[in-house]
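Today's session is about reading a structure prediction critically. Students often jump straight to the picture, but the first step is always the sequence itself: look for stretches that repeat, for charged clusters, for runs of hydrophobic residues. Only then move on to the predicted structure, which in these notes is written as discrete structure tokens rather than atom positions. Here is the chain we will use throughout the hour.
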Amino acid sequence: GIFWRARQTYDRSHQTEPPQLKTSNRLQTARMTSPSSCANLLRSLCRSNTALLHQKVGLLDALTARHGPAATEMFTKPCSIVGATIGQHFRHSMDHMELAVLVASARCNEAMSVPSSDYKQAEPAEIHYDLRVRGGTLEKDMEESRKRMVSVVDVLDEISNAVASSDTNANVTEELASHIIHSPVHAQFYLTADEGEESKLPSTVGRELGFVAHHAIHHMAMVKVIALQSAGLDEEELPDGFGRAPSTIKYDRS
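Below is the predicted structure for this chain, in token form.
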């Protein structure tokens, strides 16, 4: 990314001026010269999360195609290498993604219900990432897991369609997208096991949609190990790009 390239340049030239300052100015310029950046960013966030969910569903289909009725056994079979099951990793990453998507949906629905001139800064939404239900149906029942994924895809589609429906007016589209992605969020989780309370970090809906996509990819990378080592799948049976970060794919293409 841009910060890493700045760091490499700094290391090579031994500059005394911190490269982050220059990067910040460049990013600010990019924001000012790209009037549709918010709309494009929201579309990209929705598209990224949707693609990951389709990959997850594709993995479930691959298990069913290979194992038939025994697919659920593979879905819940612990992998000695990773120390968990496919179902557990899917449930965990879905817990995160679902929360961020539902908050984005709520902000979208609020904005769609009033003229853009009446948009107001909402109180920060509270996202508690560590308040999760472990060991339940969503990590043991493949069909329930699939239904959850499809449901979140539907919500993401609704957000994308809301932005698309306002495309006839570029200003309205940008205002709607900006309202959604810049809506404040308090992301809360435990930073250490010794803490009695969650830590609260200020964020935005857009930042959290990006985070949950990034988070999902890393768990899907572990699911890939389980699928290949414990669930009896071959590499060619996995959805294309499963568990691989966009940066890795772009690097391999270069």
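Discussion point for the tutorial: The chain has a mean pLDDT of 84.
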